[in-house]
Amino acid sequence: MRDPALFDKIDLHLIRVLHTVLTERSVSKAAIRLGMHQPAVSHALKRLRQLADDPLLVRSGAGMAPTDAALRMVAPAAAILRAAESLFSDARGFDPRSATRSFRVAASAYLDPLFLPRLAARIKQEAPRCPIDILPLSPDSPYHALLAEGEADVVIGNWPEPPGDLHQGRLFSDEVVCLVRQDHPAVRRGWSTEDWLAAEHIAPTPTHPGARGVIDAHLDSLGLVRNITARCAHFGLIPDIVAQSLLVLTTGRQYCERFAARLPVAILPCPVAFPPLVYYQLWHERTHPSEAGAWLRDCVRSVAQALRKP
Hints:
With about 300 residues, this protein is α/β, with parallel strands linked by helices. The chain contains 12 helices and 12 strands.
């Protein structure tokens, strides 16, 4: 260290502010996440800039961007916070009734829509003092990095072949079906593969140019292309769009059945054979021996099992 007394000027709270400000790239957003007043976060950032002899965050267009030095601090800061969080809690064992550690779950929007609300309710019921962060998970999300850097404790989604370098637990599998409105012509007369391909389909907005979801990736492997005429970035809104149009949504049966109870829609078999959608939870080796991590994974597994039909 350039300053022999520098270590004495750093406390864990300052590290937490540093990591939050750099990941949020905003003092105001960091203040909300930390439950602090914005001036207090600004004061802490001023101390951090003095300690680092670096501006850390600089103006970039309408927002803020971390400096090169700041970017190098993110991973070490996360590691320090993870170590501090587990330093005494793991030594004492994990008691959900008194624990105060946070849980971070990254999950796909294609899950059963009841899953995440029930998981959050289960965690808050059994571990009322533990904060929960539900994070989005898209096909291009860097979930390896999220798990390795402590930004997520588990990720939940469907993979044709889940990565072999992460721990995994199978949750459920789901049949691929089609959701249409109740008076769609296919409800009366059925459809062939050609009819289905030619129908007007709605699909999620690609996360990046050229991205393919599991439905279109499988069609590509068969040399088939469906007629997608509408896209929506908000997967939870698509069933309502289907109920008011002649658009076709192709996804898992369990997802569709949650909306069939409240919307004028019908579930039809898909004339193209798809492999089942298999959903997993994945976690990193760093949390594998953790009692808190094992408790969270058991909650995920129990909620998934409770949603399945007998």
